[in-house]
């Protein structure tokens, strides 16, 4: 009976224009959607003051499934005077991300850098108490909203010593790191707790020291769930050849690993090749469950002159973007006029003008992801609008590659123009029951 019901449901969905996801389903056309198909998130660092920039926020909504506040959660931003907390900028990023169905990586609870001046002037037990209070207050404020916290950031020295970095926090006692982790766990038990650092991307004295700490924490039951590898690469500090092996050895300790602040200085094919190799390494490690780039456009980067990101200053995807998308198994879907879809013969275009839309649904109890394929008819179209009916009680929480107004979706700038017979895709995520019924498609020509 169960099998019959499944077959009947599948037949009904197919008849209604819905196609079940299968290995041959169309490839995803955004970083976030492609990474999701690999069971991973694709995130970016976000600056609160840039959210009013429409080019910036459109790319953020379309491409990314996780955000990390670039500076807004740091100690100097969240506790500018001792005991006085300031969450406005960070709240803006967090609430917006949650409304869009994006995960949040909290960054960072305890760090030697970007401390408020009052903390820089403390030492000993006064600083230890201030740190514990800070971790408790901030983690409690964001309780339930954070997927992963960078609990401690950059606590090891560079070079060959494998020692802890000297800092006011380190001078409060070697146990300051585990105290920070235990305090964060008590404040927000559901958040995954990570150690995050740079120059730990390959196997070296610094990463060996972090490895020994994680091994010790796991052995003694200190709560640690993940290790972040910042991965700021350039000519002086390129992608290490043992990057994948290094990620894997940490994963083998029983923690998740993430690429947390990826940027690679350069341009063109060389840069694209390095980005692709970095993504490939993560995909080869089962417990590498997310990648975050440290900004959206080159001009948003902390080292903008190195043009280290996936979008140029105007928001156009670079070769590195396409390389990353392809590595994730996705593909750009708007063919240029000179390269129509190979499945459509120019001498035998489909009949009818306008457009049609078909829908692939991935649904689970309480939620769904819908991918919509928009196909132009016998003539090129310059824009499209797709309408769907949402069941009562369902809501759309996130849309990519389209602008949503209720359950009506309109193309964005780069995917309105579709050649005769060619297709483009957009998608949305929601809560409740997935929509059923044939979507309408209205074209502009
Ligand atoms: O907002 C002020 C502005 O009002 C003022 O006019 C200007 C003058 O300097 O400074 C502005 O603040 C700057 C802030 O970035 C926002 O742009 C700070 O000076 C500057 O120090 C801060 O730099 C940040 C840096 O961390 C601080 O250490 C970068 O944006 C941020 O990308 C960078 O991120 C770090 C990660 O947290 C940890 N890993 C390394 C990574 C790169 O350095």
From TrEMBL:
Q: Does the keyword Hydrolase apply?
A: yes
Q: Which organism is it from?
A: Actinoplanes lutulentus
Q: Would you tell me the protein name for this molecule?
A: Beta-xylanase
Query: What EC number(s) does the entry state?
Result: 3.2.1.8
Q: Which residues form the CBM2 domain?
A: 348-444
Using the record's annotation, list all stretches that form the GH10 domain.
25-327
Q: What does the similarity note say?
A: Belongs to the glycosyl hydrolase 10 (cellulase F) family.
Coiled-coil ranges from the UniProt annotation: none
Catalytic function, reaction form? Endohydrolysis of (1->4)-beta-D-xylosidic linkages in xylans
Q: Where is this region: Disordered?
A: 329-356
Where along the chain is the active site annotated? 261 (nucleophile)
The terms under GO molecular function for this entry are: endo-1,4-beta-xylanase activity; polysaccharide binding
The record's top EC class is: hydrolase
